Structures are given as structure tokens and as C-alpha cells.
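User: Could you walk me through two proteins back to back? I'd like the raw sequence and the C-alpha cells for each, with a short line separating them so I can tell where one ends and the next begins.

Assistant: Of course. Protein one, sequence then structure:
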Amino acid sequence: MRILFASLASVGHTYPLIPLAIAARDAGHEVHFAAGENVHPPLVRNGLRPFRPADSFYEIYAEDLEPELARLRPALVVHEWGLPGAAVAARRAGIPGLWHGFGRLIPEGIGLRLPTAAAGAPDRPHLDICPPSLQDKDFLATAERIVLRPVPYSEPARPAWRVERGSRPLIYLTLGTAFGTPEVLTTAIRGLAALDARVVVATGRVRPEELGTVPGNVTVRAWVPQAEVVPHADVVVHHGGSGTTLGALAVGVPQLILPQGADQFANAEALGAAGAARCLLPGELSADAVTDHVRELLPRRGPHRDAARAIAEEIAAMPSPDDVARSLPEHARGVTR
């Protein structure tokens, strides 16, 4: 069976789809991936046949994808929440489609249209990678959901680099690839450096040299293989992006969230309510506050770690990408067009 995946050309929107795309490939399906060229390298390395529809750079509109659907004639289109145009193009072509989420339901007012019929896009089933205890309750009650375990994906660091387990706790700090400023990172670094711990920082959009000289217990890299680092971390300090949030939850690591924009404030609120994280809003951020919050999160036994581990168990019980990939032919035959 031929399957077309489609996403916005950013790490946060493409990487959540890669585990299922790989599982579909391994199940014997012919997988193609529509996205801007910025995210083609990992897709090429995984044999997912990426291509850029029309002149798309980041967004893909229905008109961009329609000629490619006529050319490929896939049996199923899997399109992430940020691409309502892909849903419209698939419906026009009479091809079944599935929404693929990247976390909690997109809050209103952050620049993305909600993936629902009310927002002008086809109301099709959702591949939902958010553990139900954290998902929007109205979405749980009304949407047709296909539960899918979130599996972190990250590219290897170049040059090769890996974290070594040591006697002191490990704290991982990132503000993702789309958010973050030198000021926020340096404030967080000052707070974390005051702890008796090793700190690994992925600077993302900020150049490492913009951070100046860092303390001896802090390692700074432009990019780290996050999926490999997070399982070794005792605390993850981050912006509240869905990928980092779910990656830390999957291994039961408590979090300090420093939300910067988009869906991050809603994610921080949900994790705080669940007891798995603490949050510092922009007006609350200081080095001392970071130190105090992370000190509370570090103990191997404590309410935040217990809550994170409970969600990790919930995630582990969700169907794997391999499980869901085996059911994709049924969705190709059975989704209402």
C-alpha cells in the first residue's frame, strides 16, 4: 500500500510523524513524505522518499499537494495538525486521510487552525500521541481518536557526541529549535550551575558563542541527540514544546517548564495540574527561581517524579507505532471520504 505523510517543514512538526512513517515502511508499505526541504535529511536517511510539493518552503496548501496526489495516488494520506490544506486536498481527491497530532489539542489563538470540520478542514480520525490523562477533555469526548504511543525521534549530533552517566545528577536544558533567546538561556544556566549537578544545554536557534563563558559543570552544544540524552536526565528544563514534553514524560522525568509561546503555556498548565512539572512564566524567571524549582525536582523520590512515572506507565501502555502501522490498511478502506 502507498502512504503519503505530510508535515510543516520544522522539527517540531515533522519528527512526531517519523516513528509511524518508519513503522509503515517496515510493515512493507511504500512511504512518501511531503515537506519542505529543511527537514528532508532525516527523511532521506530513513528511506521515507521526501519531496517538496510545488514551491513549498514551510507551509503546504491544498493546491500544492493536489498534483502530487494525482501523480502518486496513495491509498492513505497521514497529515499533521499543522496542515489543514493536506486534509482538504486528500478529500478533494477522494483519498482517505488521518490527522496526526503532535501533543495536546492545539489551543486557539496561536496561529494554527484547529484540525476540525468547524475550522474548515475535513473532520477525520486523529492519530493521538498525547496520553489521555493530559489531553483536552472535550477533544477526548468528541473526536474519533486512534491512540498512538509517542516515540521520541532525534537526529544524531554531528560531530558525534553522547552523554556519559556520572555520579552527579544530570539536568538537560533546551528551549527548542523555534524559540529561545540568549537572555533566557543564560538566566537558566546561572540557576542550574548553582546546583551540584552536570548540566547539558542544547542551544537550538541561539548560537553557543552568544552565551559567553559558562561554568565548568555546564556543557553547551548547538544540537544534542535529545532522544538519547533525556533518558539519562534527572530533570529536564525546557520551553514546553510538545516533543520535549512527551519525550521527558515517556521516561518518567520531572520537568521545569519555561514557556515562551505557541502551545507551551497550555502544556505547562496541564503538566502542572498533573503534578509532573513546575513552571516559571516569563515574568517569574530568575536564576534563583530556577535553582529553587529544580532543587525541589531533583530528589529520586518525590511527588513530581512519582507523577511523571505514572504518566510514563500510561504512555508505555499506548499502542506502539508498529501496532498502529499494521492497522493502516483498515483505515485506508474504512475512513469516510
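----
Protein two, same layout:
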Amino acid sequence: MVSILLIIIYLAFISLGLPDSLIGSAWPVMQSEFGVPVSYAGLITMIIACGTIISSLLSDKLTRRLGTGLVTAISVLLTAAALFGFSISHSFVWLCLWAIPYGLGAGAVDAALNNYVALHYASRHMSWLHCFWGVGAAVSPYIMSYYLTGGYGWNNGYRTIGIIQIILTVILFISLPLWKNRNAENSKEEISSKPLSLQQAVRINGVPLILVAFFSYCALEQTTMLWASSYLVQHRGVDINVAARFASLFFLGITFGRFLSGFIADRLGDKLLIRIGIFTSMAGIIFIALPVTTDVLALIGLIIVGLGCAPTYPAIIHSTPFNFGKENSQAIIGIQMASAYVGTTFMPPLFGFIAAHVSIGLYPLFLIILAILMLFMSEKLNKVVAEREAAKLQPQ
């Protein structure tokens, strides 16, 4: 029964990734059809991000009241409804309205599923599950391009992904009896403890450190992804097609890296995986920044940064119950998700502002600052956790 549930969770992670790439691949056609500026895509993603932040912060209360299975099913249903709403929208205003349930559904399911896996499954599954998210995010642009190149319209692309989400929603509702804690002790802890408020969670020793580390990681990942092509073309003079291809390899590096890290995650442990991931990303950034005439090192550097990012996100999430207690992990993972969305929403545009008003050549410097901040906060948290564990061993 556990294996069936794990298969369902893997499917749920694919569904998490499916909608994430749609707006980017379909927007050139959508904005032309609606007659709005290209920049209006940012308004939609901002609304979605606000929804995900709100639902992530509420995930502790929702999950304790409804259970992970029901929260997941309802969240995917909300996302499916939003995708269908997008497919029948004939004005930009309606897109903005449908973006609200889109974001609310995405944040709650992300936090609930990540916490469930962190509590009940080995570290390797967290890596592979996030690899499957990458599969979903990589597949959806191909589905959209099929409809666009075939002349079937972007609406049908959204409708198809919506149908896939509906099928998953049905599977999730049928599977609700399977969503029970595998460990009776964990179940007891979660039921007996009360939901944590934001203020209570942040007061827990080490929580501010992991929030800044997670913020830095997500800011690093999204800034690298968004501005890679522009940096290569504008600052290094790389051919546009080559730059676009290697920028996409950064994303593939993350996905393939998570597949590989799953095989070593249990052996190395979350703390070492995070450390290796950060140092690998730093090495890639240094490759990008090297002032050499050849562009090969910069292109390889992007792939290395992707490989470095691969284990970091899953390992941070999986380490949460150990770092802060199983009874607190849902609340803290929800806050971590909110911190992640803040990083992905605001830091790439901040670098865009820097690139426009100073120089896009500061791209590697911006990334290395984020990596150093992440490393500093992560290592400081390790020290806090080590001191706590040492205190437990002291005779009373």
C-alpha cells in the first residue's frame, strides 16, 4: 500500500511542475491576442506568487485540520480549475482572476507534500520527487508548442494540462484512505501539537537562518535561469541560439542532477548534500566569471551551477524535521516555501534593474553573493543544530 501511495506522490510532483512552464511558453501568443504589453506576464506571475505565499503560510493549519491527502487533492483541483479558467479566458482581466486559485492551490500542495515526504520517506525519494517536478516542467512547453505549431491555439494547451490535473485529482480523492502516517509515533506528535503561528515558528532557534538560506537558494536558481541567455549574449557575445541552448541545459542539469543525487542522498546525508551543492554552484559561477577569451568555460559553468543546485533544494526540505522537530516541520516548511517564492519573485527583477542601470556583467557577482549568503546561513544552522544535539547528551 505504501508503494502505491508513493507512486501517487510521484504523479503529484509531476503535476506540480506541469503548469509552471506554461505561461512562459504561451505568453508571446497570448499577449498578442489580448493586446497587452509583454511585461504584463509579470503581473500574472506576481498574482500567482502572492497566492502561493499565502497558502504556504496557511499550510500548517490546513494540513492539521484536513490531512495531507485532502489538502493535496483540493489544491490540485484548484489548480485544474484555474487552468480551465485560463483556457476559456478572453481578456487579460480574467487571466488575473484565474491566477488567484492557481497560486492558492500551488502553495498549499507544495508545502503539504514536501513535509509528508520529509517525515515519512528517505532522502533519495525527496531528490527523485523533485526530479519528477522537473519532468513535469519540461514536458508542458512541448505540449503547448504542439498546439501552437499545429494551429490549435494556446487555449487547448491549457485545457489539456487541466484535463491531466483533473485525472490526477480523481486519483487523489480515491487514494485518500492511503494517506495515513506510516509511523504511529509521528502521528501522535503531529496530532498532539498545535499549529504554530508565524511569530512562534520564527522564534525557534535556527529558523531565521534556514529562511535566509532558502531565500538565497531560490533567488540564485531563478536569477541564473532567467538572465543566463542575456548575460551570455550581451556581455560575452555568444550566439543567441547557442546561449538559449545552454541556458536550457542549466534547467536540465538540475533535473538530471536530482536524479543522480537520489542514488547517494541516503549515504551522504542532507547536511553534506547541501554543502556539496553550494560549493559546486560556486565553482560553476567562477567558471562563468572567468575573464578568458573562450566562452566554453562560461557555458560549462551554467551546467555546473545547475548540477550544484540539484541536491540543495530537496536536502534543505528533507532536513527540516530533524533540524526543528517533526511536530514543527509542517509550519516551518510552509514558511520556507513562502520564503522561496519571495526570493524567486523579487530577486530576478532586482538583478534586471541592476543590469539595466549598471551592467549585466555583474551577473556572476550577484550569483556568488547569494551563494556565499546561503553557505554562511547553512553552516551557522549546522552549528546551532550540533549544539542542540550535544546539549541533549549532557547529563541532567
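DSSP finds 18 helices and no strands in the chain.

Let me know if you want the two compared in more detail.
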